Amino acid sequence: MSDIVVPGFASSELIAALAKIFDEYTPEERAKFIKQVNGIFQFDIKNKEGKVETFIIDAKKEGKVTRGKGTKADATLSLKDEDFIALAEGKLNGQKAYMSGKLKVKGQIMLAMKLDNVFKSLKPQAKL
């Protein structure tokens, strides 16, 4: 999972934690999660230095997390590093972030509503 953590991107640590959780899912848990979300998310995250990293959360086919482009996303979300963390921790409302321009979505905007299900899987294990 260390290939997911990127220096200068605090969000990459949360994404790596998510990847670890997905890896530990039983086949039944993975199937339930995929059925619940059924989408591939691409996150284009910009850090304070203006660099952008891309992460893919596949909650449609394989139930895994990767760094870099590759899989065609159903929804592409662009946001700042600190906004991603606030969103994942539940401190930033996704709709408000979208309306205020902090979060940009391309593709299936309704799929972005299911992100809560993805981030909820972080809650029990991550120290947020």
Automatic annotation (TrEMBL):
<dbReference type="Pfam" id="PF02036">
    <property type="entry name" value="SCP2"/>
</dbReference>
<dbReference type="InterPro" id="IPR003033">
    <property type="entry name" value="SCP2_sterol-bd_dom"/>
</dbReference>
<feature type="domain" description="SCP2">
    <location>
        <begin position="28"/>
        <end position="120"/>
    </location>
</feature>
<protein>
    <recommendedName>
        <fullName>SCP2 domain-containing protein</fullName>
    </recommendedName>
</protein>
<dbReference type="InterPro" id="IPR036527">
    <property type="entry name" value="SCP2_sterol-bd_dom_sf"/>
</dbReference>
<dbReference type="GO" id="GO:0005829">
    <property type="term" value="C:cytosol"/>
</dbReference>
